[in-house]
Amino acid sequence: MKIYNTLTKTKEEFVPLEEGKVKMYVCGPTVYNLIHIGNARPMIVFDTVRRYMEYKGYEVNYVSNFTDVDDKIIKKAVEEGVDSSVISNRYIEECKKDMEALNVKPATTHPLATNEIEGMVDMISTLIRKKYAYPAQDGTVYYRTRSFQGYGKLSHKNLDDLQGGNRSLLVSGEEQKEDPLDFVLWKPRKAGEPAWHSPWCDGRPGWHIECSVMSKRYLGEEIDIHAGGEDLVFPHHENEIAQSEAANGKNFAKYWMHNAFLNIDNKKMSKSAGNFFTVRDISEKYDLQVLRFFMLSAHYRSPLNFSADLMEAAKNGLERIVTAAERLKELTGKAAGEQLSDNEKSLLAEAENYKKKYELAMEDDFNTADAISAIFELVKFINTQVSEESSKPFAEALYSMLFTMADICGLILEKKKEILDEEIENLIQERQQARKDKNFARADEIRNQLLEQGILLEDTREGVKWKRA
Ligand code: AMP
Ligand code: ZN
User: Fold this and answer.
1) What is the pLDDT of residues 192-214, one digit of tens each?
2) Which of 78, 142, 346, 454 is the most buried (most CB within 10 A)?
3) Ligand 1: does its nearest atom lie under 6 Å from the Cβ of 275?
4) What residues make up the domain containing 381?
5) Which helix (H) or strand (E) holds 95?
6) Which atom of ligand 1 is nearest to the CA of 228?
7) Is residue 416 domain-resident?
């Protein structure tokens, strides 16, 4: 299995640190809003990497954090007049719902930065002790960037170029730095902000130290894969390397994987630019399986432009795969023959080639675009070679092959059952009764159940109205 490593800029053979095991850390979202579909790209891509590794028999310890202390979270909390944990908890829950709908497996551990402050204070203390960091007058702790020999090795940047670029960017507080390149590990509290005790001042951690600490706590000092979007290469991942390697005295991650951006009109989708769709927006129009399929139709290191046309194409493509699977199931149920014929045996051997093709694509730095082409070839084969005369084991074997190939991509082959109008009316009546009985828990449960099936309820003066989202 080959992985493109940002560190070496080459595709390398994957050799795990420990046989049969993969330790993988994926930088998660900052939770101050619903996630947008750009944020969903690393989730889907690296979940697929994980699924493929599991398919190969690796035990994958997959850690992905939530950044739950951050300026943007604090800003939103101030706007709403609530504690910042109210904001972060709300959007962690919403993010988990989106992940489930995208069929992204829950991580082995989803650590929260605010639960790991002790470890951060520890690591910062170690860095100070080893002279890689220093506290300034006001209690801010900075990392002494030039003291780390390997600084720039991930982003392939040269320290002196960085120095030149940074000079014009001096902002307040910078004057207490020994060097403009130094970055913050701990910062003093401002009024109204969440803060924790530390030997330097009451305050909060910088963003980069969070991941170094959570990765160490849940995966150990050396890990196999560290991943995230390509905007994280510099400075986030570069700083993580500087922190972890200086503190632990070991290599941090063996392979660094970065997905390219999801764009709109060839510009990065981002909340700050305002050119984004949330996963929730998309779920109003499409089953999120379509979004997942769309994301995997490109290689993860290629930029991907979001468009209505491509989503429609993804919808049709997925439909073709699901229809072939449904047909196989139906034929399995009806099939009379219990034995593979000789012809079927040789056809199955032929079908194995599509699976091999699929695996070769995945082995080549997770080329899901080519892997999906192999799925389509198998679908075409199924559509032409399976009929009412086929034997049961033949239809079953092909179903199992198709299922495995789809499942590694996290694609679900079952057609969603459409909820009938009558069932909706019955549930609405039950909800009205529950409300009369003051059983609000049940009433909410019904509302949510309907929502999950894409049915929106509206309480109007003329009674409850509903529509399909
Ligand atoms: P953030 O919440 O901005 O820290 O982002 C969480 C994850 O989403 C990071 O791995 C980012 O690199 C990734 N990400 C953000 N925007 C995009 C985008 N437009 N395309 C692909 N990945 C993105
Ligand atoms: Zn991170």
Assistant:
1) 899 999 999 999 999 999 999 99
2) 142
3) no
4) 279-408
5) helix 84-101
6) 10
7) no
